[in-house]
Amino acid sequence: MLTFSRSVVLASQSPRRRALLKQIGIDFSVQVSDINEEEMSLDMPPTEYAAGLALRKAEAVACKQDTAALVIGADTIVVLDGAILNKPADSAEAQAMLRRLSGRTHTVYTGVAVVHAPELTAHCETQKTEVTFRELDDKEILEYVATGSPLDKAGSYGIQDDFGAVFVRNIIGCYYNIVGLPLELLYRMLRKVAL
User: Fold this and answer.
1) Catalytic amino acids?
2) Is residue 52 domain-resident?
3) Which of 63, 90, 98, 163 is the most buried (most CB within 10 A)?
4) Average pLDDT in the 37-63 region?
5) Residue 77: beta bridge partners?
6) Where are the beta strands (DSSP E) in the chain?
7) HSE (CB half, 13 Å, CA atoms) of 83?
8) What does the pLDDT read at residue 192?
9) Is residue 32 part of a domain?
């Protein structure tokens, strides 16, 4: 297990990211950033977009630390045909996203930032995973959206969901990246700090 001379803070309200950090034995607290994600341009390259949001989240929380800390920020996006599919605004948009993803391969990018507070020195990296959906029918799309689960997820699905999991035919890359926090990448980033 990694140990640090500074406290570790997760700049995310995501229960999935909290669970993943606990899974690898990191002792941390949670402080949610208050940045406006809509200020980022969707015209940016996906890796820059995801890393940029992760960094902004981590920096916003790092600026509020009274003691030395390592602040972890992350942002996950889904990209199809060059377009970024963020969290849907409503059920109708979630349904439309899932219809677009049906039978297709898309890319999931997660930007990860580790910011030292109070110095605000930062390290950012991005993980990429290819995900292929099977063909989805309208009935299962409607049933899944009715659960409410897709409404807080990029691309309108969660691979870890009971029902969302059965949409995925194949993945190439890191499973945890799709969930929202690529653990192997984060571990390497934190190990550099711990050593």
Assistant:
1) 75
2) yes
3) 98
4) 88
5) 109
6) 7-10, 29-30, 69-80, 83-85, 105-117, 121-133, 168-172
7) 8
8) 86
9) yes
Dist CA 100 CA 155 (whole Å) = 10
Task: Please enumerate, as own/partner, the contacts of 14-18 that have beta carbons within 8 Å and a separation of 24 or more.
Answer: 14/74, 14/180, 14/181, 16/158, 16/160, 16/179, 16/180, 16/181, 17/74, 17/180, 17/181
Residue whose pair of structure tokens reads 């640090």 in the numeric block? 4
Return the structure tokens found at 180.
């929202």
Mean pLDDT of the residues in the chain: 92
Which range is least confidently modeled, 5-9, 40-44, 146-150, 174-178?
40-44
The yes-or-no verdict on residue 148 having pLDDT over 90 is yes
Domain membership of residue 113 (yes or no) is: yes
- CA nearest neighbour of 146 among 165, 164, 167, 169: 164
Residue 180, SS3 per DSSP? coil
**In terms of pTM, does the model score above 0.70?**
yes
Q: Calculate helix-pair angle for 138-146, 91-101, nearest 10 degrees.
A: 140
Name the residue with tokens 């989805």. 136
Report the Cα 72 to chain-centroid distance in Å: 12
Domain CATH code at residue 111 = 3.90.950.10
- Specify if 1 maps to a domain: no
